Amino acid sequence: MRKQELARIRAKLEAQLAGLLGEGAEMVHRMSAPDDGELPDPNDRASRETDTNRALRLRDRDRKLIAKVEEALARLDAGRYGLCESCGGRISPARLKARPVTTLCIDCKREAEQRERA
Ligand SMILES: [Zn+2]
Known about the structure:
The protein is mainly α. It contains four helices and no strands.
């Protein structure tokens, strides 16, 4: 992959990471905001609990994505970006552009998916 393309992918990953971290901080802030007292209606209380569960699930997913983006940036720094984790081959630039955090080439990805299904 050319230097220019790698620079573009790095910028994309850094922007994504900043967005994820920004959203996460905002969510934590909202969740730790002082409680405005006991809610009299049990339905209100239930819906609030659902919101909190949803926020926690979202953060779990974000955390995983943040880790993936950070790993991708580390691979860029180490000069190992774009190499398949499984077979060591090159991942196609088209695939990397579509999914910059990927660690598998398309063949290994298909194989992994087939194993998961089996
Ligand atoms: Zn591979």
